């Protein structure tokens, strides 16, 4: 299999595992009572807003660097800005998963729900790993 096919296989696996992970998490939410569900949603409202701002900053900085030709300058120095961009995005995703799980563990929630969160996060991280392997293989060709 050539490097391009490995990249697309990793991308496809990431998409599939992301959907599966979200489905598992949504099914787990059905185990919560209305009060618990409201409590979980309210507890994460600030975290969702902060996460959105962080994500916009990562994308915005990358776009500004591209517009001002700094990406070309970094490439001339031997750094691949695309790798740094994806590493930042993956760090953001992993950090948000870790912080969310830590916050959920402190709440008094059913073990069935927490189990679905763990499985969903694991599936999503598996997909990210597949994408990372595909990207490394594709960029290192």
List strands and helices in order, with pairings.
Elements: H1 3-29, H2 34-43, H3 45-67, H4 70-76, H5 81-106, H6 111-139
Helix pairs in contact: 1-6, 3-5, 5-6
Describe the structure.
The structure is a single chain. The chain has 141 residues and is an all-alpha fold. It has one domain (3-139). The chain is built from 6 helices and no strands. It has helices at residues 3-29, 34-43, 45-67, 70-76, 81-106, 111-139. Helix 1 (3-29) packs antiparallel against helix 6 (111-139) and helix 3 (45-67) packs antiparallel against helix 5 (81-106). The longest helix has 29 residues, at 111-139. The model has no long low-confidence stretch (mean pLDDT 90).
Helix tally?
6
Roughly what percent helix?
over 70%
Major pleated sheet: none
How does the overall form come out from the CA principal axes?
Answer: flat
Distance from N terminus to C terminus (CA atoms, Å) equals: 12 Å
Q: What is the CA-atom radius of gyration, in angstroms?
A: 18 Å
Could you say which structural class the secondary elements and strand pairing correspond to?
mainly alpha
Q: Are there runs of 5+ residues with pLDDT below 50, and where?
A: none
What percent of residues are in strands?
Answer: under 5%
């Amino acid at each position: 299999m050539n490097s391009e096919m490995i990249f697309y296989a990793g991308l496809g696996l990431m998409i599939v595992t992301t959907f599966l992970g979200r489905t598992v998490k949504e099914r787990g939410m059905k185990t919560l009572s209305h009060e618990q569900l409201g409590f979980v949603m309210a507890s994460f409202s600030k975290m969702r807003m902060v996460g959105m701002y962080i994500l916009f900053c990562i994308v915005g900085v990358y776009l500004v660097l591209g517009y001002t030709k700094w990406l070309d300058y970094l490439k001339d120095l031997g750094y691949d800005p695309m790798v740094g961009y994806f590493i930042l995005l993956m760090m953001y995703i992993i950090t948000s998963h870790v912080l969310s799980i830590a916050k959920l563990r402190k709440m008094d929630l059913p073990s069935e729900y927490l189990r679905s969160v763990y499985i969903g996060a694991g599936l999503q991280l598996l997909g990210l790993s597949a994408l990372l392997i595909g990207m490394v293989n594709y960029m290192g060709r």
